[in-house]
Write a structure and sequence with these properties.
Length: 155
Amino acid sequence: MTTALCPGSFDPPTNGHVDVIERAIQTFDRVVVAVVDNPSKESLFTTGERVAMLEELFGDEVEVGSFTGLLVDYAGEVGADVVVKGLRTVDDYEYEVQMSQMNRHLTGMETVFMATRSEWSFISSSLVREVAKLGGSIGGLVPGAVEKALQERLA
């Protein structure tokens, strides 16, 4: 049984995140989605709120948790065999390859990259937050429940 770990900030979860996680569900036996709790980063949603959004989106199809510290340590805690990362751009690739090489150096953990579908390649959580804060439409960029949560948070 292969367990995949899909980490991210998910602040907020976008349709691009959903796409990668759904494809991981189809590919691996068990999927753990992990919200990175980075205290030095100012998030729009708390770690608990982001975990709750992901649980609402995926139900019992995945396990959702959160962590601070090294990804490879959390991967060991949940018994992950591989890390799954979505790639949108060349910048994502350069950053994620470096991270994957460090993770492999630290523990031998492998990373599988999934290219984001073209219709989601321009979406990032930070761009969605910015558009929402400025009153623009984020319909179709995030799941409905996330859109509602954003509207309520920014009202």
